[in-house]
Write a structure and sequence with these properties.
The chain has seven helices and no strands. By secondary structure, the protein is an all-alpha fold.
Length: 178
């Protein structure tokens, strides 16, 4: 019973953390460095990824409650926090991949290409083109946080393709029709 109480305390602390982060996002948005821009899309995507990681950690407890009820409270807390933070990291990495046009298609957000001279300018100008693209960026941020295998699997495939030797395609043997 004590472990269940610890689990609820961990979840409560995480809900309070998200409430604070969301209030900060609503109240302050992006720092004044970006001038008239009120909202940092990257920060919103980060929050979506953190939320995705949180929801994922909740659903993992539903699927395997024995782990959560037998683990020491400190281990459980660190596991949950790491799960949420990784969700945020993966959402930002995916956001950067979208902004850099490393991933493209109708399911992914399109970003405006604006010349920048500094990282601060990039943070202020890396924005989706339309509102639908903004929604896609948030949805993919949540998915990256929830899945936690999406971005690492993408990198594994990328490295696999980079490491393969470039072998020219062989012509099919056989008769060709004239």
């Amino acid at each position: 019973m004590n472990q269940a109480k610890n689990l609820y305390q961990v979840y409560f602390a995480m809900v309070v953390f998200f409430a604070i982060v969301m209030l900060l996002e609503i109240k302050y948005g992006i720092p004044k460095a970006c001038g008239e821009v009120e909202d940092a899309v990257g920060f919103s995507v980060l929050v979506a990824g953190l939320l995705g990681g949180f929801v994922s950690s909740l659903t993992r407890g539903i699927h395997d409650p024995t782990l959560e009820l037998t683990a020491p409270a400190g281990v459980l807390f660190m596991q949950k926090v790491a799960h949420v933070l990784l969700g945020g990291v993966f959402s930002i990495v995916l956001y950067l991949m979208f902004a850099g046009h490393m991933v493209a298609g109708s399911l992914f957000p399109e970003f405006a290409q604006v010349p920048v001279n500094s990282f601060e300018e990039f943070l202020c100008s890396a924005r989706p083109v339309e509102t639908g693209d903004y929604a896609k960026a948030l949805a993919w941020g949540f998915i990256a946080g929830y899945s936690q295998t999406l971005v690492p699997n993408f990198f594994d495939k990328l490295v696999e393709n980079i490491e393969k030797p470039n072998v020219p395609a062989k012509k099919k043997a056989g008769k060709q029709k004239a």
